[in-house]
Amino acid sequence: MIKLDRLVRSAGASLGESLNYYWPPTNLNAQALERNISLHMAHAFRAAGHLVYGEVNSAHPAGSTARFDLLAVDPATSGYTIAEFKRMDDMGQAQGFVADWNRIVGFVPQPAGAHRHQLLDLNQKWGVLAAITSNVEIARWFNTLNEDQGDPWTVGEENGPLDAAWADCWEALYTGNTLYLDAVPLADWHEVRHNQRASYWLVYVIAKLP
Length: 210
Hints:
Strand order of the largest sheet: 1-2-3-4-6-5
Helix content: 25-40%
Order of helices and strands: HHEEEHEHHEE
Largest sheet: 6 strands, mixed
Structural class: alpha+beta
Shape: globular
Number of strands: 6
Radius of gyration: 18 Å
Number of domains: 1
């Protein structure tokens, strides 16, 4: 899992460097588009020797029309990573985060044959769900993992407004998965003319999936 974590953090460092010099949206307070995360993630995986694909369909009948942002295949290990990227500003987005994670868990690669080379084995599955946020409370939740891999914040403690909203999110993510959460700082912006300040993080979940 550390190899995957290093790839995600490498992509975050690359994205952060780019955002330090140029912000894609015209509005300072707008989140960078998910496509910017996808771009830097794909570059990091490709540099590590993976085959990378964007806008990938699942072979599962129920998800054949749904598309995933990135599929990275490591021919050397027969492993593959399926990833989704999003923006995350609102503390009420925990439910949507879980829905995206469940889609990742349910992803099925194409069988060997017409859509996959017969020499390409895919028997190790990894998942990545990452988001850009300017919400410090969301970043702090992802950056506070207990040693026992329990909910980073216990409901009822005075840890901020995310306690109750994100308790179900943690339970859904952790059930049956060995996972790791973290937050990587990306960029700080200060627009002098309007005296606007904003800090951005890349928050993410990675997991070895069945």
